[in-house]
């Protein structure tokens, strides 16, 4: 089934607890040679904790039961490393008997990043729940949004008793008029610090030293930290040491918040970026093509697609090794990007396959870009000293000219078919 070798996802056919077919992407994913995979028990590759569920679902699927077509599970590669995978499964007929066709998507990097994000959130939650000082959140109108359990230790109020109520309900009657001044300072300066006089649930006078910071955005809010300094006020002690501690704690909260935001941005970017070349990945390609196709049909402007396959790349990998293959892919990606226009969109969609979206470009213009790419790659020493040249097989398809293509999925299929046809012509010419 050579066609499956050109699909960027790992694919296999499962029957009788063994693989009947595996493509080269599955070989790369697991680290096991193809012949060894075909001799293995499939379940040896599945994480022991996930094995019973997958065996049960495979049995039910083979007997025709209605089983979810896609789910996540863990697997083990040749080196014992845990892989997080999303599988897409369908029942087929192979050798006149039921079999399962499986496609896998490696989501290990995304899972690890999510775990990193969860740990950071857990650290922040631990600080919020266990710090000795009161941490509070309120809106710009002075209503509490959240308070930590330290509130109860000092005031007798439960956090839920004050959530949604105005800050003034917590203040001493003689200073309630200062709330407006405090909110104005927060709004204008972005932060406020000082001494506040309040009351406990039993009506006892209490003094707080606070530091509040405004967090701007779509839904702005104020986050701050407060420390009971009643004893120091009554005794006339200096508050410098406590201010230093308050500032340190607030900086820690700000730092953790920045780490969470940075981790989220990093996760979103990595989910759409090919880690080797820096180009957009298949997910980014699908999103961009759907967006540009919709714009093309809405504005009655053409949109072209180039599907690109690197000829002789497998031979480079087999003879020079994966590091050399990676260097070649990075070089090819850079040349493709340099040869395209600034508004063209370049992607690596898997293995040795690339794609270029050409907005507002008809078929003639797209073929000019394709010719320019072929010449640029042919004129470069991608793998110096290697006897076989590196060249590109490019399939061109255009949306918005004629009636041959109706949507972005048909655009992909046509460009893919033309790329494969050109690759076959190149092989025939070389033989």
From TrEMBL:
InterPro entries: DGC-Regulatory_Protein, GGDEF_dom, Nucleotide_cyclase, PAS, PAS-like_dom_sf, PAS_4, PAS_fold_3, Rev_trsase/Diguanyl_cyclase. Residues 21-65, 120-190 form the PAS domain. It holds the Pfam family GGDEF. Residues 301-431 form the GGDEF domain. Residues 239-273 form a coiled coil. The keyword Coiled coil applies. Signal peptide: none annotated. Keywords: Coiled coil. This is PAS domain S-box-containing protein/diguanylate cyclase (GGDEF) domain-containing protein.
